[in-house]
Amino acid sequence: MEQKTSIGLLGYGVVGKGFFELLADKEAFNIHRIAVKHPGLHSDIPAGLLAASGYDIISDPEVDVIIEAIDDAEEAFELLKFALKAGKPFITANKKMIATHLPEIIALQSAYGVPVLYEAACCAGIPVIRTAEDYYTDLVNGITGIINGSTNYILTAMGRYRYRFSHALQLAQEAGFAERDASLDIEGKDAACKLSILITHLWGIYIAPDEILYTGIQNILPQDLRLAEHTGGSIKLVAHACKTNEDRFVSYILPKLVFRENILYSVTHEFNGLVLSDTYGDEHLLYGKGSGARPTAMGLWNDLQAFLRGYKYRYKKQVKPEQFNNDYLLTVHVSIPIGLKLPKDLDLVAYSDDSRYVYYTGTLSLRQLSENDWWKHKG
Amino acid sequence: MEQKTSIGLLGYGVVGKGFFELLADKEAFNIHRIAVKHPGLHSDIPAGLLAASGYDIISDPEVDVIIEAIDDAEEAFELLKFALKAGKPFITANKKMIATHLPEIIALQSAYGVPVLYEAACCAGIPVIRTAEDYYTDLVNGITGIINGSTNYILTAMGRYRYRFSHALQLAQEAGFAERDASLDIEGKDAACKLSILITHLWGIYIAPDEILYTGIQNILPQDLRLAEHTGGSIKLVAHACKTNEDRFVSYILPKLVFRENILYSVTHEFNGLVLSDTYGDEHLLYGKGSGARPTAMGLWNDLQAFLRGYKYRYKKQVKPEQFNNDYLLTVHVSIPIGLKLPKDLDLVAYSDDSRYVYYTGTLSLRQLSENDWWKHKG
Q1: What are residue A231's phi and psi, to 5 degrees?
Q2: Total Cβ atoms within 10 A of residue A43
Q3: Which of A139, A262, A269, A278 should we substitute to test contact with B (largest number of B Cβ atoms within 10 Å)?
Q4: Does A279 reach chain B within 8 Å, measured CB to CB?
Q5: Neighbours of A333 (CB within 10 A)
Q6: Helix (H, G, I), strand (E, B), or coil: what is residue A12?
Q7: SS3 content of chain B, % helix, strand, coil (to 5)
Q8: Which one, of A109, A63, A104, lies nearest residue A85 by Cα?
Q9: Would you say the ipTM is above 0.85?
Q10: End-to-end CA distance of chain A
Q11: What is residue B377's predicted lDDT score, i.e. its pLDDT?
């Protein structure tokens, strides 16, 4: 291609700026215009590039491709629809937007014949969606991963360096690992969005993020991390989805005790790791930086290259979403403030306590965990 | 696709049989015929499937795709040429054939417009070629990996379980990790073939396997492994290629001391791991089983799926092969039998000895290592 590819960039936060910088020495590409929410805050944008709005950029006949890196999922979705109608390919890192609207986004791509690519929405630059989509076809039974960089960074900082939660969170935000609204990361919703996207590409079913059982690290206390250490493991926010025997599906995001023998144990700091388990019982790991300006910019760049080669997602046949297996059993460790009562009829036994908490262990089904949330709150 | 894809299978050794078994429950595919060198040895091939020769299978109008899994690289190349002329896509696990003839294979694909795919030739089912080809475009500065499963298995067995070399090799062969001609693995040639292929896909240059400085694990002694352990590391057969500052290239396969902090330290047994280092200094790891019947069969299966989606390799612009940087310096540890003299003018100092060997350390350039092979032989 002799002519430069002309790019319209929506958003100039951590990721947008990272992408702009990545493109600086790529001669075949040109950032045509940039739209930001608060132009007054962006004296760092080169003169002449600032656009009045994302819609203006999309409508600009000189723009070939849209790169979207804004925070607001609903606004991003409106821009996506506008872009597809205008025939402009749309490359995004917006996991919440994609996961929330995926069935509609699939239909829109098909209706307008224009691709949407979003590798950067899952684990930044690590090609996990690509691999789920194109590779190991019909041979993956389950995935287990650490797919949120900021919670992993926080847990590493709390466990290894004894930082307080608030300090670790602040560091993660300063380094650009955590979203502006950190609750999405901390409470597990960000990981649920990514898992939802991966499940669609792996098995052709759509499970909305809110249908996935998820909780984050908001209730992890320093003593939990120390306890984990004493057992020779550490606590990680683990995303898991698998086919169970009956061709039903299980999916959750939960803080789990990960032992040294587990390959995910060495996934620390802002790194992500996704293990794909194949039908032979073998494991395949994809590992790298899962958040931050440059890794995410790299994900966008990879999609831009893929688009230029004619790549698009092919979504497999959809199966019924009610094929959940909520009878799936998990071994759990729960701590409850002293004085608080457990719901009845749970297969849990107290095994330890301290001045404030009683520690229980036992077996619960996903249904028992989904039906109420006594275990999510520590008061 | 309603009609079954009809496959001609060449070879029914560890890999061919593994592929046949993988296809057993895949309804959209059909193994039409199988060619083997010694039909008398294959009573396990279902009646009616045996073909007189690979050429017969390729000529069979009912065969859509050729899957090649034979040992002999030259015979495989003849079959490949015959298949492309006949318009039959050719999927292979034959790293020696691909690496040795890659420039010609690129030209043939272009001349006949028929694809050759060979993901299984590098690290079995791990999508390393795919990633080098399609992903991180223009952003990878270097790769470092453990890309030979059998030597890694042998080193693990020798270091961890104190097995003798011969016993460890035998186990590797029994498990199907080692080629029939084990010297290819042991002496590093197998890894050099894989590295050569990866370099072409990453940077668009061709370096023939024999142009790569390589040595294997044939001279690693139990005391070397113990010494490594005392330093907190272990010896691994490491493949490395990188761009140096001046846009020149370095490539080698050498046994290296890998410390615990290195992500490749935990790549043990028959596992492979490939680290891609990006221009930002970040590392990306692809990890999984790099040899054996099922992982390799999975690589062939992935290529079959890719072919059906219209995938083909796009080779980037070739640069001059003389862009080697042989001034590149390595810190080396060498042991020389007592009484043997070192070549003159080498920057090496003796730091230890035992009853049979003197141990040296120091800095040598790739040129000094390439120019003669005193360091390869322990007498």
Answers
A1: -85, 0
A2: 7
A3: A139
A4: no
A5: 19
A6: coil
A7: 40, 25, 35
A8: A109
A9: yes
A10: 60
A11: 57
- The reported pTM is 0.90
Nearest chain B Cα to A298, which residue? B136
Tokens of A319: 């199966």
Q: How far apart are CA B207 and CA B143, in angstroms?
A: 15
CB burial of B104-138 (b: ≥16 within 10 Å; e: otherwise) equals ebbebbeebebbbbbbbbbbbbbbbbbbbbbbbbe
Q: pLDDT at position B379, please? A: 40
Handedness of CA B19, B23, B24, B30 (dihedral sign): negative
How high is the pLDDT of residue B126? 95
CA B265 to chain centre: 19
Long-range contacts of A225-230 (CB under 8 A, 24+ apart): A225/A155, A225/A158, A225/A159, A227/A359, A228/A159, A228/A257, A229/A159
Both structure tokens of B61: 């109008």
Q: What is the pLDDT of residue B276?
A: 96
Residues in chain B, overall count: 379
Q: Residue B134: enclosing H or E segment and its boundaries?
A: helix B128-134
Tokens of A330: 């998990």
Q: Do A139 and B298 touch (CB under 8 A)?
A: yes
pLDDT tens column, B182-230? 899 999 999 999 999 999 999 988 999 999 999 999 988 888 898 889 9
Nearest one of A193, A203, A194, A196 to A315, comparing CA atoms: A203
| Spatial distance between the Cα atoms of B257 and A57, rounded to a whole number of angstroms | 53
Chain B partners within 8 Å of A309 (Cβ): 134, 314
Q: How far apart are CA B52 and CA B50, in angstroms?
A: 7
Partners of A272 on chain B (C-beta within 8 Å) are: none
Q: Tell me which residues of chain A have a pLDDT lower than 70.
A: 1-2, 246, 318-322, 377-379
- What's the pLDDT at B1? 45
Q: Which two tokens stand for residue A215?
A: 């909780």
Q: Which residues in chain B show pLDDT less than 70?
A: 1-2, 246, 318-322, 377-379
Quick check: A294 contacting B, CB < 8 Å?
yes
pLDDT of residue B293: 92
**CB-based burial label for A170 (10 Å; 0-12, 13-18, 19+):** middle
Residue A270 token pair: 């802002």
- pLDDT score of A1: 45
C-alpha dist (Å) from residue A75 to A55, A59, A186, B7: 11, 16, 23, 49
Name the closest residue on chain A to residue B307, using Cα atoms. Answer: A134
Find the angle CA(B327)-CA(B332)-CA(B333) to the nearest 5 degrees.
160
Please give the distance of CA A321 from its chain centroid, rounded to a whole number: 21
